[in-house]
Amino acid sequence: MGSIFLSNSLNLIRQNITIIPKVPITLHGIDGRYATALFSAASKTNNLNNVESELKQVKSAIKKDAKLSNFLEDPSLNRNQKKLGVQELLKQGKYCDTTKNFFQVLAENGRLNETIKIIDAYTSLMAAHRGEILVTIITAKELEPNLLDKLKITLSKSKFVKPNQKLRIENKINPSILGGLMIEFGEDQTIDLSVASKITKLNKLLT
């Protein structure tokens, strides 16, 4: 009888254990530390994907609303004002407690100006968690979807991508590169094929 009770108890414990994934990559800087703390908190509450989705909503709102962006960046506002402003922002959508609490911490610590960087860092953590590698293609003008697809196929066969990794392509616009493109693999590999880079090299040769 005792062994049956013990067996049932162990089964109940196993069913209620939440396996918390390890942080997949080490990120540095203020944004990296806060993103890592958020990843750990979201893991414990089984909210990794929800938090990622909600952060994307917040980032989209910041990009679309100049007043919101200015509010987050404004150094003249005290922390209490920032905290009240964040509470108002989060009322506009259905956000989980993990996301709400995190933005309260950012407001209290005076780190709301790092919001976009922290969101990007969290996105990098989630990509690594899913076995993805972020490849950012920087161009002077937006690339056509069919060209992006062709680049994705080519890049997936490159030495920078491991066989078990999935590619996640992003196209960022930077007119200052003039033409050509730059390709960033994750955080530490860059291929510079921009016109601006070629001009710089030519100028060095000429001088």
From the N-terminal CA to the C-terminal CA, the straight-line distance is 89 Å
Task: Detail the poorly predicted runs.
Answer: 12-17
What's the main sheet like? Answer: 4 strands, mixed
Question: What is the number of helices?
Answer: 9
Q: Order of strands side by side in the largest beta sheet?
A: 2-1-3-4
Number of strands: 4
Instruction: Give the % helix.
Output: 55-70%
Radius of gyration: 22 Å
User: What is the global morphology?
Assistant: globular
Helix-strand category: alpha+beta
Order of helices and strands: HHHHHHHEHEEEH
* Average pLDDT figure: 84
Strand content: 5-15%
General description of the model:
With 207 residues, the protein is α+β, with helices and mostly antiparallel strands. The protein is built from nine helices and four strands. A four-stranded mixed beta sheet has the order 2-1-3-4, with helices on both faces. Helix 8 links the parallel strand 1 and strand 2. Helix 2 crosses helix 7, helix 3 crosses helix 4 and helix 3 runs antiparallel to helix 7. About 3% of the residues have low confidence.
